[in-house]
Structures are given as C-alpha cells and as structure tokens.
C-alpha cells in the first residue's frame, strides 16, 4: 500500500520577506482594512485582488499571489480569516488546514506559515502554535493507499515551518507546535486506520495493529483477549455481536503508564491518597464492519459502515498521542472489536445475552450492537478500578438526527467531567453538545424478561442508548460521546479531503493534557 503524505513541521526564526518557500501563507480578516506589512513588497498585487472583489477575507477563502524579487517566497497565499471579533483558536487551525490543503493541490514542496501575525497577540502564541500544527496535518491529509495510478500524482512529502522574525515569539510558538505535531500525526494515523476497508481491517487485524503500536511506543503495553478468553471471562456482549462473522471478535486493552524521570509512581489501582492522579479509561467501539446483522441495514451507503470502528480507532490513536506526549497520567485504552454480519451463527432478535457484568440483555434489534460491545468494556473498566471512564462510539443514527453533522452528543453522570470535556472541545475545535440520559430514559430500557433490552422506543434514541450504557459504569465518573454524524467528512472542503474525520483524537488528548496541567 502507498504511504500517506509525510508531513514534517518545525518552527524557525526568519524574516517574513526573506523566507524562501514554495508557498508563504498569511492571514487577512474580512473586517480589518489594514494589510500585512509584507504586502507592501508585492507592488500592490494584493490590493488589486481585493479591489477586484476576488478576495474578501471570508473564512475558508484564499487567493494566490505570485512573488517577486523583493521577497523570498515564490507564492503568497492570502488566507481568509472571517470577522476578527469572531476569531477563535479554531480559526487559526482552519486557516492552517486551508494553507496545507492548497499546498498539496499545487504540489508545493515547502510551506511557511505566518498566519499568526494577523491576530496581533489576541491568543497565546503556544496555543496558536498547537492549532497551526494540528491544522497542517488536517489539511494536508490524503487517503489514497490503494490508488495505483493518478493522472496528476502527488508529492510524497511536505515540509512545513511556522515562522517569526522574533526569536522569543518563535520559541513560544514552538512549545505549541511540538505538542500539535504529536496530536496531528495521531489524528492522521486514526484517519488512515478508519478509512481502511473491512477486507483489510477485521478484529484480529486491529488487534495486531494495537500490539504493534504498543511494541513501538514507550510506556504502552497491550493485552488482547481472543474469543476463547472472552468466553471464559463471560464477555457475552462482544461474543454475541461477533458470532455471525468468520473473523472472530477481539477485546483489546492498552495501558499507558508514565515512565522516566519525574513520572508519578502511581499504579493501575485506584488510589485513595489525597492529590493522587486518577486512573482514566478511554473506551471505544470498534465494529470493523456493521451490516446490522440479522436486522440488516439498507444497501444504500452501507459501504460507510467500515467507519463504525471510528470510536475504537480514536482511542488507539489517542493512546499513541498520550504516550508520545509522556503525560503524567495512568490511562487505559479499551477497544472491544467485532464484525456484525448475518449468518447461520448470528445472534438473533429475541436472544437473551449475559454480559460481563452479569446483567442480562434482551436483544430486540441486532443493529443496536454497539451498546452490546460497550457494556462489556465499561464493566471491564470498572473492574480495573478506573476513576473516570469516557466512551466514544458511532452509536446511534438518532444523534445525527438531533445534532446533524456538526457536533457529537455528550452524555454522562458527572457534571464536572462533562464541563471538562466541553472545555477541551472549545480548545480542540471538535464540537460536542450536552444531552440528557437520566432515569426517565433508563426506564425505557427495562425488559420484562431480562434486566435490560437493547433498544427503547423510537424517540430519543441517543439518550436511551446512553442510559443503557449508564447501567454498567458503577460508581465511576462517566461520560459518553456519540459521534455518529461527525465521524466522516462527506465531501472534500477547503480544509480537508473526504472520508474519515478521526473525530475525538484532538478532543480526548486535549482533555487529558488539561488534567495534567491542573
């Protein structure tokens, strides 16, 4: 398979006008009349473009101006930032994505980013550096592993630098760039794995990938339970969902424990010591393909069901980022994985499944399979004495009905945890919205012949699904992210290509970084 574009990013102190690059990106707000000082060296070219109405500074817009002998760059990319009063760090991230996307399209080998200049100190430079790096990876990403021929081709690599003429500013930008590169690479890693089809990634293959990641990453370890081990442990939920496929299910457990000088001497046991850092579990649904099982889905767009593994892939990539950032936290990454297919051995509507927790579930719809995996994984996290449990899953079409393709649903049992995730959402640019999952929704999930049933009424499906999961978290602080609707970019935009969005990697990593900062 062909490798994705190799992006190398660094920070450099250099005068903006002397910076040699195939493309130099600068920003322009739509409601700010003054132009960047660099523009004066372009003999009025930018002023003419603006006067003609070809560029108005609208967010997402851009215009290419060709350089001259007075500047080092071959081209200047003028990137629209929208209204200055509405600017956020995500404005910076999107602008960098726009520039990186344009670089790939025009086959630029080198890109220099001076987008932060337009913000004139409005945001902390380290925050801007992180956003610039994350945006660079978002925009430059292409998934073409299986494309053997291309009319235009594309470059195999892109060299990017964040530049400033002031050494102190460049140093502060670099603080954010360093962490942003780690997160950006993890994000691209997630998108690649999620984009791969089900004939390439099945549960055993995903387990192999997790083992490889752990082997190659300091601080990570990996344990995989096969179907026999899961049967011995009573993980009936995962086994039921995977019963219809020739590819057997897997239960993947990644552990990150800080290593090296200064790492806390905390174990993977709940600590009652005052001030001890919590043990956190990230739980991700990884259905490598979801046909719906015997309750089969319509054929239309079923190819997109390869993305039903996105939650698990997000957890895998976040564990990669956590380890590379060397965060001073104990973190579990728990990924239950199965392929949901119809066959003579599939689980059926009407079946009653005994889950890992001991609770029984009446199956009314085999397409409500994600919660059957997650209930075993959540109970496993509780058994590992995790203080905080966050699960992430493409769980319900109802969440997309409620929130569209713009936000993920957030539900949970702890207001502080939910607010912390909302703060991380604002910083990471991955949007979430709080939704209820209280007792009234849980009541709908009660069965007359088992402890629970796996679907409720036709109304509030995202909320009843979360209420079902809530029954398996015990006393742990818990949050649930329903990412159905945001797991993919349905078409290419000025910021990125279509396919997997890798949603959640920036969000979860930012949340964990914030915990360490406290």
Explain what this protein looks like in three dimensions:
Residues 262-274 have low confidence and may be disordered. By secondary structure, the chain is α/β, with parallel strands linked by helices. α2 packs parallel to α3 (125-140), α3 (125-140) runs parallel beside α4 and α11 (415-428) packs across α14. Helix content is 34%, strand content 20%. It folds into 2 domains: 6-191, Leucine Aminopeptidase, subunit E, domain 1; 196-268 and 289-491 and 502-517, Aminopeptidase (3-Layer(aba) Sandwich). It is elongated, with a radius of gyration of 24 Å. It is built from 14 helices and 20 strands. The strands form 4 sheets. Strands 7, 8, 9, 10, 11, 14, 15, 16 and 18 form a 9-stranded mixed sheet that branches. Strands 1-6-5-2-4-3 form a 6-stranded mixed sheet, with helices on both faces. Strands 12-13-17 form a 3-stranded mixed sheet. It starts with 5 loop residues before the first strand and ends with a helix.
Task: Please write out the topology.
Blueprint: E1 6-13, E2 23-28, H1 45-51, E3 62-66, E4 75-80, H2 89-105, E5 110-113, H3 125-140, E6 157-164, H4 167-195, H5 203-216, E7 220-225, H6 227-233, H7 236-241, E8 250-256, E9 279-284, E10 286-290, H8 310-325, E11 330-340, E12 352-354, E13 360-362, H9 370-383, E14 388-393, H10 397-403, E15 408-412, H11 415-428, E16 432-434, H12 439-444, E17 452-453, H13 461-470, E18 477-482, E19 488-489, E20 499-500, H14 505-517
Helix pairs in contact: 2-3, 3-4, 4-8, 8-14, 11-14
């Amino acid at each position: 398979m062909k490798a994705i574009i190799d992006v190398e990013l660094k920070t450099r102190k250099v005068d903006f006008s002397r910076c040699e690059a195939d493309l130099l990106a600068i920003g322009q707000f739509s409601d700010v009349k003054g132009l960047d000082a660099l523009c004066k060296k372009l003999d009025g070219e930018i002023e003419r473009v603006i006067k003609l109405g070809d560029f108005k500074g609208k967010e997402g817009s851009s215009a290419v101006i060709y350089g001259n002998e007075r500047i080092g760059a071959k081209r200047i990319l003028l990137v629209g930032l929208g209204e200055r009063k509405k600017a956020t760090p995500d404005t910076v991230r999107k602008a960098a994505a726009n520039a990186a996307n344009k670089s790939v399209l025009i086959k630029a080998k080198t890109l220099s980013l001076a987008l932060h200049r337009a913000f004139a100190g409005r945001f902390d430079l380290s925050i801007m550096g992180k956003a610039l790096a994350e945006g660079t990876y978002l925009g430059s990403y292409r998934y073409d592993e299986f494309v053997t021929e291309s009319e235009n081709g594309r470059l195999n690599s892109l060299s990017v630098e964040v530049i400033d003429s002031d050494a102190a500013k460049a140093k502060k930008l670099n603080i954010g760039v360093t962490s942003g590169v780690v997160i950006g690479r993890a994000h691209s890693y997630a998108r690649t794995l999620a984009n791969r089809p089900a004939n390439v990634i099945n549960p055993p293959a995903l387990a192999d990938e997790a083992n490889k990641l752990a082997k190659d990453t300091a601080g990570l370890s990996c344990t995989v339970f096969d179907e026999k081990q899961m049967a011995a442990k009573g993980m009936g939920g995962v086994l039921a969902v995977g019963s219809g496929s020739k590819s057997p299910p897997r239960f993947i457990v990644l552990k990150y424990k800080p290593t090296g000088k200064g790492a806390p001497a905390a174990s993977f046991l709940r600590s009652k010591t005052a001030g001890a850092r919590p043990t956190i579990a990230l739980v991700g649904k990884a259905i490598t393909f979801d046909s719906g099982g015997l309750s089969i889905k319509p054929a239309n767009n079923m190819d997109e069901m390869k993305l039903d593994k996105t939650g698990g892939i997000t957890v895998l990539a976040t564990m990669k980022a956590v380890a590379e950032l060397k965060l001073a936290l104990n973190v579990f990454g728990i990924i239950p994985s199965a392929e949901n297919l119809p066959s003579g051995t599939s689980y059926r509507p009407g079946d009653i499944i005994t889950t890992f927790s001991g609770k029984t579930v009446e199956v009314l719809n085999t397409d409500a399979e994600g919660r059957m995996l997650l209930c075993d994984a959540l109970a496993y996290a509780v058994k590992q004495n995790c203080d905080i449990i966050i699960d992430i899953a493409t769980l319900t079409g109802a969440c997309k009905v409620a929130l569209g393709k713009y936000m993920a649903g957030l539900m949970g049992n702890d207001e502080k945890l939910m607010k912390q995730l909302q703060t991380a959402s604002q910083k990471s640019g991955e949007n979430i919205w709080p939704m209820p999952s209280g007792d009234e929704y849980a009541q709908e999930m009660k069965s007359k012949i088992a402890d629970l049933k796996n679907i409720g009424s036709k109304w509030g499906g995202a909320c009843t699904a979360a209420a079902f999961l809530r029954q398996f978290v015990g006393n742990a602080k818990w949050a649930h992210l329903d990412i159905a609707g945001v797991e993919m970019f349905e078409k290419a935009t000025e910021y990125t290509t279509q396919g997997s969005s890798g949603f959640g990697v920036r969000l979860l990593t930012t949340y964990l970084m914030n915990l360490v900062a406290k």
